[in-house]
Every structure is written in structure tokens, then in C-alpha cells.
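Q: Two folds, back to back.
A: First:
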Amino acid sequence: MSIYTRYGDRGYTKLVGGGRAKKSAPRVQAYGSIDTLNAQLGLTVASLNEQENYLYAELVQLQQWIFDCGSDFATPDEKRPYKVEPQMIVWLEEKIDFYWSKSPTIDRFVLPAGTVSSVNLHLCRCFTREAERNAVSLLEYDEAVNEEALRFLNRLSDYFFVLARWVNSQAGQPEIFYENSISVFNRKKNKKELF
């Protein structure tokens, strides 16, 4: 079997279920950006230092789920059952709550800085937000999507943010605050302004 098919030479790719789409189509953009995110998470896993190896299994599990998420976006009209399920979001929420509760209290934006692993996790957060924007654009074209996969991406960016902070905290690395930030994590006091 050859790795190349020549099918994409004219700018098309195959979707799950046998359909095809232009490589520039919103659906392809969505699952392509999820693939980019997964590669960044792979780099993050590969870059873990010896003291951070306890994160290996958790992050590899997330890579599996991120692949599932990309697969769901490559599947138009639910041509096969979707893979991202509500319990994945529950798992993320539990992790988010844990890491947030174990990190220093903040009331301002922080810069993506600190340890290499923390910065890599911030990059994962950024790639997740990009993937989410691309996924949401499918709704503007009335494309069928797995709503659980959209929720998964939304929680996933929060997960990477709190984990990046927690990794810095575990390493004794102080965070660098954005100097012009207002109080953002206590929104009851600052409903009128976000920056």
C-alpha cells in the first residue's frame, strides 16, 4: 500500500463516510487545527522533564481524546457514531477544579511564561482556542457537528491554562502578571470591562 494516493493533488480530501471536501473547506480547517493542537501536545509530552513525568499518562490520554475530537469534525452528518462523549467533559472539569484549587490565587492575566512545560501548555491553550474558533465557524455554514466536541474544546483550553499555572507552581516558578490587567477572575466586581 502506498502512503500517497494523489487524491489531494487537485486540492480535495476525503471525509469520514466517503464524502470529499476542498482542503480549504471549514470542516477541513477545523479538524486540521485539531491535528496541529495534538502535535503541540505531543511536543509538550516529549519535553516533560523527569520531575513532570507524572503528567505523561494524563496528557497521552488527552491526545487520544483530541484525536477522537478531530475524527468527529471529519465526520459530516454523523456518518458514524461520534466519539467525544459527556464523561470526557466531566473529566476535564474535575481536573480544572483540582489544578485551579491547588494553584496560587490570581486576579489578573498572566503572561505565558515560566518553565518550558508551562509555556508549551500555554501554546496548547492557544492552539485549542484556534481549533475552537474553526469548529464554531462550521455552525455558520449550518454544518452538522458533535456539540459535545465543541464543549470539549472549550473546556480543554481552560484545562491547559490551569495546568500551565499549576506546573509553574510545582516548580516554584513565580508567574509574571500582565502589567495593564484589571481584575479578571472576580467578574462580579468588573462586569463592565475585560481589559
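A: Second:
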Amino acid sequence: MKSVLCFGDSNTHAQVPGAGPLERYAREARWPGVLQRQLGQEWYVIEEGLSGRTTVHDDPIEGAHKNGRTYLKPCLQSHATLNLVILMLGTNDLKIRFNKPPSEVAMGIGCLVYDIRELAPGPGGTVPEIMIVAPPPMLDDIGEWQPIFDGAQAKSHHLALQFEIMADSLGVHFFDAGSVCECDPGDGFHIGAEAHEALGLALADEVKAIGWIE
């Protein structure tokens, strides 16, 4: 059995657009659940999403535990051995409190790739396959979240390119979620049920295409 860790934020946690952080889609409807369904019993899909998670930043308002880099290593060790790690973060880094351009958000993702490689939680102490997934761009209308994400909408349209550049430079896999789904108008930055289905199906194809050596 091969295992994949899906490490992300509220769009991996599957928060319902326009709802609170405790309101989630059913497990089988979340993109990791769809991925599990498509990959079948030969794969173990580990869902690790946290609302508000950043790439490498302590959040001065929501708490230091929102720092993805702080939690990644113990998470990797907890779930080792891993054949694949999927990283889908970046939206929360665009909050005005962090004031980061898309290129630096991509650098944060790069730091996580380095950490995975350093820890080498793959079979026999090897480095697992790594896939960077760029979140879909935010919608122009994000309602009450505008003061928190002021200026983020325009930046979000540049994340995919910056993430792809980072993935190419590090020699890891890349997928643009915006190529198959959009954020939901319920709040403008979370994906809805149909988007979870589309993303899970697309990522299953990407995982199968890696070319696993038996």
C-alpha cells in the first residue's frame, strides 16, 4: 500500500464556503476523499488540512500553530512512511498582515519542500515524491473578508506561475488547481463541493501519471 499526505489549509480541511471553520463537507466529498476513491485500496490518503494555515509564518492573530512549517516535520514523522506529499497552501499568506508578494509565498512552499527532503520520510529513508498544488485564484468579491485580504485577489492570480517556477527549480511535480476549479461565491476564497470533486479527480490522474516503480 502506498501513502499520500495531503497537507493544506481550509481548502484541504474542506470548510464550506461562507460558513465557519467547523462546518465541513463530508469526508468522502472533500478532495482528499475523492482522491482516495479514485486511487482505490492500494493507496492510503491522509487528510491534513487546517483552516488559516500558512506556509512558514506564525500568525500574530490566529496563533503560531497556523505555521505550516512548524507542524510539517512532526506530521511527516507521524505518518511515515510516505510515498507522496501534496502541498496546497498559499492563500493565507496573502493576508494583509503578512504583506508578501506571490514570489515570496512560493519561497515559503520551497522551504517546505526542503524540509521534506531533509527529513526523507519515504520508504527506506528516501525522499518521497512531492507535488505542489497552486490554489485557485480568489474571486473579486470576498465580502466581509476584504479588510483581511485587501489586495490579495490580484496577487492570487500570480500564485500558479510562481509556484510552477518554484516546482520546476526544485524538480518536483506541479498542478494548478485553477485549471479545473474555481473558488465559490459563498465567500470568494473557499472551494465548493463541485470544485472538490473536480480537484480530487484531476489530482488522482496526476498521481497515477507519476510512474510508480513497483
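Q: And?
A: The first helix runs from residue 10 to 13.
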